[in-house]
Please model this.
Amino acid sequence: ESGCGKTTTAMAILRMVQRPGRIVGGEILLDGIDLAPLSDRDLRDVRWDKLALIPQGAMNSLNPVMRISRQIGDAIEAHEGKQNKQELKARILNLLTITGLPSRIYDMYPHELSGGMKQRVCIAMAIALHPTLVIADEPTSALDVIVQRVVAQTLLDVKERMGVSMIMIGHDMGLQAQLVDRIAVMYAGHMVEVAPVASLFKEPLHPYTQLLIESIPSVKERKPLKLTEGITHDLRNPPPGCIFQERCAHVMDICRAIKPPLREYKTEHHAACHLYEDTAQGVAGRQSAESAR
Model:
């Protein structure tokens, strides 16, 4: 849902949380390096070079008075120093080609581009330094369905062609099913389920995930869509126990007293729910037996 903490989590990974928000603890590990304690100077070297962002709302992410070529070129030269003009131009044109944009975009301004083109320019900027991880924050929001498909295919092409890892943020479950390998479902600032995409859609465990999937319109079945009743808790004063308790149809006494940990209930399938405690103990037992062997 909007406001569950998806973008805030992404900004925390990048150490770009806006005040009054702040990072109070924990680790942010990338290639074995903890980003949390790095100085701003060291973090600047990591951003874009190893860790890049495709921002939410490309319409407002580009400088309206700079040509596309200069915006991409400035990002490259900020990290790699002054470049040969012809080599830099060839590099930028190659990035435009990779993201499915015509070469004429090179000399154009943002206002001359469509929404989908602006989004693909942001993708080109994100991959300009060949990062190991790209965070795409709702890259298809505010785009029509046809352009969404084009942008989604561009992201898949970039992922396969350049071998980068991606974190895709969004609340369109149907689109996520086509784009990702694993899904983490968030509710009120907490991850409530993490699983391979096929496992999650075949057998969602957490009641909130089940409601999310059942809210997707189907062209095959004629049935009313399910809605999540109630409203989320005030996160400044969360209740004891499970954060989803007031909206859950399966709530038990234990849910109101003890916060469920994120545990593995099936192979690589984790959920934070008391409904499956016996299953979790069985999985843990099998893993212990296998380790002993």
